[in-house]
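User: Predict the structure for this protein chain, please.
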Amino acid sequence: MSLKSRVARAWSALLGHDLQTEFRRDIPPITSEDIEEIKSFFPMPKFFIFGHARSGTTMLARAIRIHPEVHCNYQAHFFTRPPLLESLVNRSDIGSWLSRSSNRWNQGRDLSPIVLRVCADYILEREARRMNKLIVGDKSPSSLMDGKAVELMHKVYPDGSLIYIIRDGRDTVISHRFQAFIEFPERLTKEDQDIRAHFAHNPEHFLSGQYSIFTEKSLRQAAKAWARNVDETNQSGRSLFHCRYLSLRYEDLLEHPWLKMLSVWEFLAAGEISADLEPVLNNEFSQNPDAEWQLEKASEIAQALNKGRHGSWQELFTSKDKEIFEQIAGTTLRAWGYESS
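Assistant: Here is the predicted structure, written as structure tokens:
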């Protein structure tokens, strides 16, 4: 690095500028040869559950691990929330270290994708092995990364399986809104805090569609984010993973839990599925730990809600809310079979 560049960097550092972005680099995708070799150490098939926040990812993860061969835990965020798995190696100086020509261990190549795959494999398999499971996966909501999350996953796990769960966007944004009211009230704007206080004292004004739980700006942002997540994730999932990509609707999972979970386990090539699992699955679906926790956290808000129910938007959306969501995300709603009324 020249003296001029060094002085410029030092001056930027003194001014508090973030220099990290200057050191970022693209990570090469893992090769099929590397995958086969890594599988001799970490042989378990891997899957990942993506979905917009509040779309039923947790419920699906709880259900999927009922199978005696399948384990799933929550929110490693390898590919779905910064700093991401790739942050372990995406600095240029680390890349130089892992691909240095004098490093005779790397066989003249960049070891970065191997490091990423081995780290994730170890994290996933160490817990699955303890539970005597044979297939392992992670569920992490992908609201922040959308289609990019699928691309990042494919670079490390092109042989993995991706399950994407979709929920009616109107119910999704309502659930996400109440999550903010209940769990993160300190992050709300003054206008949002006023809406929250009004709901706590007079929920019937909102449950009858007289008042909106959203500001117009927040609803527009939420509708755009939901449609973008669904459109990008589904497009990337289909184009990159093909037969290793499965999408399903939250509402169908609620209506036909046993049939839908049979298709999920078959997609993962899990072993024999005993009919004895059906009552266990139904019992799991009858529980809602999140609702219980929210009731304990903020009963003045949560007690007025019927969590997890399909179609709550018809009560909580005002006429203006319906118009806004239709305008922004109507095409995506209809593409997934969600009617406008």
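The beta strands are 46-50, 70-74, 135-139, 161-166, 245-249.
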